[in-house]
Specification:
single chain, alpha/beta, Rossmann fold, nine-stranded mixed β-sheet, 10 helices, 9 strands, 19% strand
Length: 313
């Protein structure tokens, strides 16, 4: 991974509270979200070998309803982590009106690349096939990834409908294009180990070409969907410069993108509810302008808050 510490590659992105299996919960005052949501847990969306793949559905049951699905992909260095750790990160998006769907994918102890992206793409197909019952627009599905999950979100966004990454598990035949991507402190590149051996994500013996083919940066092109990036300036697991380079590459190919650097906070900074809420609101504003209600703006006034030349006098 790009400039990721070897230990950090295998660290989880933080643990959040596990939510009850089924029902309606109301966020408490001062928590990450206000309002209520309905939750369905452990729905099977595909089968990979002998493994049933599960997802959870968090739906707003009051307040705004945006008819857009957000597929959330957990971190953990591909060796650990679970969809069940994402409850507190999902809640602010639900409060803003998004149907949020944390998903399971196979870890590298069970299967090597590209199994992980195949599972994410199966979740995208399942969401699109079930858009009516989810009460979302099938053309308005986004991916939201955290750390290693950020790698998978970016990779899914950049490789829609590419046969070599689609896999065969779960809802075959559907499209895997997404309308937007949110990447939290994402891993943007896959690199060999310092001793030249294959990155742990890849099968043993993988060459440089295989590492490039597993790196999200390889697929940044003009067709990439609108993307918002979040990173802490004190992150030592995946340094800030990784996301800065990603943002620069988006700008070079004119992909609509925003980059938000949160000063003084480390990896997985959004385990703090205050930051989770702030980042979700920034993502919401970006997605509203670029996906839900696309719009352009007239030229802004001059600096200092003036209205053109007269206002600056």
């Amino acid at each position: 991974m790009q400039e990721m510490t070897r230990r950090g590659f295998f660290e989880t992105a933080g643990m959040a509270a596990v939510v009850p299996s089924v029902g309606v919960i109301t966020a408490q005052s001062g928590g990450p979200a206000r309002g209520s949501m309905s939750i369905e847990k452990n729905i099977v969306f595909g089968k990979a070998g002998n493994t049933d793949l599960h997802l959870d559905i968090y739906k707003p049951s009051g307040g705004p309803q945006k008819r857009m699905a957000m597929i959330h992909i957990h971190g953990g260095g591909f060796t650990a982590g679970s969809k069940d750790t994402l409850a507190d990160r999902v809640a602010p998006f639900v409060a803003l009106g998004y149907v949020s769907i944390p998903v399971q994918y196979r870890l590298i102890g069970e299967a090597r690349w590209p199994a992980q992206i195949e599972d994410v793409k199966a979740a995208i197909r399942w969401t699109r096939a079930n858009a009516s019952s989810l009460e979302v627009d099938p053309e308005k599905i986004a991916v939201v990834g955290y750390s290693a999950g950020g790698h998978l979100a970016l990779f899914a966004a950049g490789t829609a409908n590419r046969p070599e990454f689609e896999g065969k598990n779960g809802t075959p035949g559907g499209s895997t294009h997404v309308a937007a991507c949110c990447a939290y402190y994402p891993a943007t590149e896959v690199r060999p180990q310092p001793d030249g051996s294959a990155n742990p994500l890849l099968p043993a013996g993988s060459d440089e070409a295989a590492h490039r083919a597993a790196s999200p940066l390889t697929y940044v092109a003009k067709a990439f969907p609108p993307t918002v990036i979040f990173h802490g300036t004190a992150d030592v697991t995946i340094p800030l410069e990784s996301s800065e380079r990603l943002f620069k590459q988006f700008r070079e190919v004119q992909v609509p993108a925003e980059f938000h650097a949160f000063e003084g906070v480390p990896h997985a900074f959004d385990s703090n509810p205050e930051f989770a809420k702030a980042a979700a609101e920034l993502a919401d504003f970006f997605i509203d302008r670029k996906v839900l209600h696309p719009r352009t703006y007239p030229p802004f006034g001059g600096g200092g808050g003036g209205r053109g030349r007269r206002g600056a006098q």
